[in-house]
Amino acid sequence: MSDNDKTHRILCVVGARPNFMKMAPIMAAFGALPAVEAKLVHTGQHYDVAMNHQYFQALGIPDPDINLEVGSGSHAQQTAEVMRRFEPALDDVAPSAVLVVGDVNSTIACALVAAKKGVPVIHVEAGLRSHDRAMPEEINRVLTDQLSDLLFTTEESGRANLLKEGIADERIHFVGNVMIDTLRLNLPRAVPAARIAADAGRTGFADNGYAVLTLHRPSNVDDAAILKGLLETAGAISERVPVIFPVHPRTRATIERFGLAHLLDRPTLLLLPPMGYLEMLGLMKDAKVVLTDSGGIQEETTALGTPCITLRHNTERPITVDEGTNTIAGNAPDAILAAFDSILAGGGKAGRVPHFWDGRAAERIADIVVRWLQDR
Description:
It is a single chain. The protein has 16 helices and 13 strands. By secondary structure, the protein is an alpha/beta fold. Strands 3-2-1-4-5-6-7 form a seven-stranded parallel beta sheet, sandwiched between helices. Strands 10-9-8-11-12-13 form a six-stranded parallel beta sheet, with helices on both faces. Strand 12, helix 14 (319-322) and strand 13 (326-328) form a beta-alpha-beta unit.
């Protein structure tokens, strides 16, 4: 058998829900190629079984071949436990390469194990930088890229960042955004906001326009004063446009701990549990504006043409600001309200869908990976 006829086994790693949206089209693209046998590892970093099943089912992801069931813990505990449990799985499968996505603890943990055992590492969504080392995800991104043999970028800024950090140009490939592959494929199945509101007992809540709020980053939800200001701002916005707020479990816990729940007791605010992918897609699609501290939502709103206000002082996805619909406002109430007023008055940035955000990024990744493995 020649190298070109060989079937290459690739171990694909997911750990947290943002990874699921990125991995779904990659698994599908590999599945269409006879030269690849893709096996899926779920580290269990996000361990809500019902929510995980909902995402896997909605996105058509096959059941994991291996589930490490790591669960929660501090960054150090979680990273160490993923490494400890991933190593024997890697030895058992003996893959040609390990593919990781994004910037969660599972990403760096599995990349580090693979690199130390001499197994090539492929990183999808490489080169994104907020230049804020206070973000744990930034540490994960930088280190994973240094460990990777093949790096796939979603925007051209990624290549520039990687070259500055000493990554060889021939290892970098601009392929577009796999999250947008998932979005385009599933947009016809998005659950309308009106149905979501009605299911929550609030029929008519979203009929005349609404905003969406998501909050989960420690810099926003772990500081009582900052969180109080953000919730008060959400309340003020809701008096002008009703606000739908799917509340992250961690955020809900800090709201209760800081005694801030009364700030959300308004008829113009609709609090929901964490949403599935198709529900969240429906909420974003028709919103007047989305307020968020999520990186992925910045990309999704740009692809949808929905105005986005990012409740952070920086972004690792600058293309969403330069070409898309995203405005960076930070977490100060005055700045957020000014950005909201501007969007309400003028409809927000028109934006455009960035190059290669065309629904075919995973196909490009699969083709490059197969050629790369055959040439090794």
